[in-house]
Amino acid sequence: MRYWLIAIWRTMPRSWIIVSLPIVTPFVLLFLWWVFAGLFLTSPDPRHLVHKAELERLLPQARAGDRSAQIRVGTIYREGLSGKAEPAEAVRWFSEAAKKGDADAQLAMGELYARGQGVRQDFARAAEFYRSATLNRNIHAQFLLGDLYFHGRGVPHDYGQAIEWFRKAALAGHAGAQSVMGSIYEKGFGVDRDLAAAFVWYSLAADNRAAAMKARGDIDPREAAASIKASLSRLELRNAERQLAETRRRLRSAG
Q1: Assigned domain for 176 exists
Q2: Per the domain annotation, does 39 fall within a domain?
Q3: Which of 14, 106, 154, 241 has the fewest beta carbons under 10 Å from its own?
């Protein structure tokens, strides 16, 4: 077979080959693409297809002013759930919902400004949005506003204000804020150092350790509580455990 192909090739007029190349080449390339494309192309992620369909369904509602649709559309764009993150579009839709006074949208806008996603990074604007969200008792906004005061980002550096916001969030059950309150009392940031109080806050955070470490990955409240417990006297520990039980009861009744 090989010899027949060689013989045919040698007998073909060279001029005919040159003339036919512009016509034949596209078909050859198309054939090669059809044969080999499957080796290089990946099938679309089914989850992306689901969220694309969701986006197509929600966008008309969002344009019509539906607040919940605007928040969901913003979330899809921010997280790239349909295949690609589009932070500028996320800002657009969260902003629309935030104007209507939605605390979740205000929180989202604050986080976008704090991270510089879709907008220029601006901690002062982030603080404004967090403060608006706290008016609707958004506890994560309280926690993040406390963090801005603690580090002096966009607001004055103020341990007193930071502790006030952290405490509000912690007493509302925010595990990350509880971890931070433990650290504040352990190290004496803006307060007198108090290991018994630190033990109480760390122990509360350890009740929801996963959430605490999601908010503050640098603090393991379970390990911190165990370490401090070993350093307390029997009397200090007894009083701290009494305070811990009382605070747990308050949290359960408030929840």
Answers
A1: yes
A2: no
A3: 14
Q: Based on the domain organization, do 153 and 246 belong to the same domain? A: yes
Single-letter code of the amino acid located at 93: W
d(CA 114, CA 21): 59
Name the nearest CA neighbour of 66 among 42, 96, 90, 106: 96
For residue 28, pLDDT beyond 80:
no
- What total of structural domains would you count in the chain? 2
**Does 160 share its domain with 206?**
yes
Q: pTM value?
A: 0.81
For residue 193, the SS3 value is coil
Rounded to whole angstroms, the Cα distance separating 114 from 17 reads 65
> Position 78: which residue type?
R
Domain-located, residue 40: no
**Tell me, what amino acid is at 104?**
D
Cα distances (angstroms) measured from residue 229 to each of 191, 203, 226 = 20, 10, 5
Shared domain check, 163 and 59:
no
User: What is the distance between the alpha carbons of residues 134 and 138, in angstroms, rounded to a whole number?
Assistant: 5
pLDDT grade for 35, boundaries at 50, 70 and 90: low
